[in-house]
Structures are given as C-alpha cells and as structure tokens.
Design goal:
This protein is of the alpha/beta class. It has ten helices and five strands. The mean pLDDT is about 90.
Length: about 210
C-alpha cells in the first residue's frame, strides 16, 4: 500500500506520517511540501492508494490544488487534511470530488478511521457537520482551472494580486513576451476576455488560510 502526504508544515507532516506508519505497518509513505512537488511526484509515479492533501500547501491557491489532482489523477482518492474547519469549505471540497475531509485538530483515532474509510471506498466527514450556509455551486468551472499549468497558475495568482505584466516578468525572471503569452493562454483556457473576468473566476476557488489569521 502506498500513501502520499502533501503538507508544507514539517512538524504536522511528521506527526501524521508517524500516525499512519503505526496504523499501517509496512506501508510505503511518501511526503511532499508543495503543489509542484506533488504533481512532479505523481507524474513520476501515480500508483498511489491514497493522497492526504492540505488545501493550503504552497502553490495550491485554495481549491486549485485539489482540482488539479482530481482532474489529472481521478483514480487516486483524496482525503483533505486541513486546518480550515469551515462547513462551506468542507462541503465544497466534497462537491469538487474529495473522498473525505479531516480537520487537523482531529484525534489520531479519527485520522486512522478516516484513512480506513476512504481506502475502503467510503466518504469521511467530520461528525456533526452542519449544512452549508449557502448552496454550493455545482457549476464551478473546475475543468478550466485544471487545464492551467503550474506556471500559468502562478501568473494568474499574480494577476489576481494586481501585478502588471512587467512586474510578473521580473518576479518570475522571464520576458514580458513570455508573460503576455501566458496571459493569452490563461484567457483562452478560462474562457474569458480580460483580466477582470479572469480574476473574478479565479477568486471563486480561493480560501483564506486559517493559519494566517490574526
């Protein structure tokens, strides 16, 4: 059995791996700390029985990391492990295709139960989960976001932050022409015609990282 843990916090990742190794002796457990590492790992070897994914790993940009994995590796069940316990976030993650959602404050026993449930083909949700405060959108254009490359996601994120092409080029150490080409391709893949439309669409997948809250 092979498990893959995607989380950028070494202490939590180490604790999670320890719990999994104790519960699943002999299990092969791999670790990555960013979306680019995750996609690179899966491109090299996608024979994974379960992915435990933090929504807020670097380069994931909210739900986009989850969307990328589910679109390109639909055979891998994804158990989201997040510090974000907002009911709307949990329901949206499940709507997008996650197999389960586990909050980081969960006890070790719950972690093991969640892993076992998802490996058995079941869904796992926190107990006493309230219904969403709003009806989750079933029309989120997730496939459009999934079509973006990691570099295009980085460019789109910078566009959403209000950076101009030259600023993006300086940040990424590429030419203005390269950035313009990325922006044109982003517009094509998202089905939009300008930056405002692209940012509005992209914002629907963003999440506030609870670890960054004061």
């Amino acid at each position: 059995m092979k498990l893959l843990v995607a989380d950028d916090h070494p202490l939590f990742r180490s604790a999670l791996v320890h719990t999994l190794a104790k519960a699943k002796p002999g299990c092969d457990i791999c670790e990555v700390g960013s979306l680019s590492e995750l996609l690179s790992q899966l491109k090299h070897d996608d024979d994974v029985d379960l992915l435990l994914l933090d929504l807020h790993i670097p380069e994931a940009f909210g739900f986009t990391g989850l969307i990328q994995v589910l679109e390109h590796y639909e055979h891998i069940p994804v158990l989201v492990v997040s510090g974000n316990d907002n009911a709307d976030v949990i329901h949206q993650a499940m709507l997008l295709g996650a197999s389960g959602f586990l909050v980081k404050s969960a006890a070790n026993e719950d972690i093991v139960q969640a892993v076992n449930a998802v490996l058995a083909g079941q869904n796992w949700l926190p107990t006493d989960l309230p219904p969403p405060s709003t009806v989750p959108s079933e029309a989120l254009p997730a496939e459009r976001i999934a079509a973006l490359t990691p570099q295009q996601l980085r460019v789109l994120t910078m566009v959403s932050e209000g950076l101009y092409n030259k600023q993006i080029a300086d940040e990424l150490h590429v030419t203005d022409a390269t950035v313009r080409a990325h922006v044109t391709e982003i517009f094509r893949k998202l089905g939009v015609t300008n930056r405002t439309q692209a940012v509005i669409l992209f914002s629907r997948f963003q999440l506030e990282n609870p670890q960054h809250q004061v």
